[in-house]
Amino acid sequence: MSARTVLPLVKTVTTVTALTALVLVTTGCTSTKTAGSGGGSQISLVTEGKLTTCTHLPYEPFQFRKGNEVVGFDVDIVDLVAKDLKVTQEIVDTPFEGIQTGEDLNAGKCDLAAAGMTITPVREQNLDFSGPYFDATQALIAKKGSPYISLASLKGKKLGVQQGTTGETYAKKNGAGVETVQFEDVALLLTAVKTGQVDAAINDNGVLFEYVRKNADTAVTAEFDTGEKYGIAVRTGNTALRKKIDEVVKAARADGRYDALYKKWFPAAPKK
Ligand code: ARG
Known about the structure:
Blueprint: E1 6-7, H1 13-27, E2 30-33, E3 42-45, E4 50-55, E5 64-66, E6 69-71, H2 73-84, E7 88-93, H3 96-100, H4 103-106, E8 112-113, H5 121-124, E9 128-129, E10 134-143, E11 158-162, H6 166-174, E12 179-183, H7 186-195, E13 200-204, H8 205-214, E14 218-230, E15 233-234, H9 239-255, H10 257-265
Parallel strand pairs: 1-7, 4-7, 4-8, 11-12, 11-13
Antiparallel strand pairs: 2-3, 5-6, 8-15, 9-15, 10-13, 10-14
Arginine binds near residues 56, 59, 96, 115 and 118.
């Protein structure tokens, strides 16, 4: 398995943005030829020899720290792309907001974003998505035995949401009278459920099912059929890389590598 470095979270986003833009203008991107069958299309990488991924940790089992490494389903999928390009993956941990708005990609902070991110029409205006690689839906998590089994049951109660996510949007749209409390990441969100700081929380089913599997005092109490699909994002117009991702995921689905990864990270899930 390839070595992965996690870069520290970059706090001065605006400064970095301006600086990176300048560097890109004056020096251009470094580039690498693709080895695939794509007919010689050129893929530019922000750092030579690396496929740099923006993500927001933790989002187990899609991306999370295990010892000094970042591992997960998304990490393994992107590793397949990196392998095909004969480079190694480097992961940048950065707030979800900058990922989903396309800001990080535009700033050249990374080549792609893989963050269990749902394909939405709004996001598509600001970045380009690969084809769907995973299905998801919103779900509710609460303490085991709690009465919060729907948004209606949470009227006048506190519902934790993760900032900038589809779960937040869904709760605000469909949870009339529910008080939403915003959290920066899913670790803080789920801790708030455990400690009773919020009565329940909304997030993607895959992440919540993994959490309840390891935290028997919590339960998934509802699933909302939001029919979401995850995509890997690239900067708007980075068609060469987007096509390469699609080509690799398609091949992995066809030859069993995708299924093997699915089994590895979702051992309890029924076969897709
Ligand atoms: N699927 C949801 C969305 O796209 C949540 C993604 C959060 N991902 C993360 N790595 N924190 O809004």
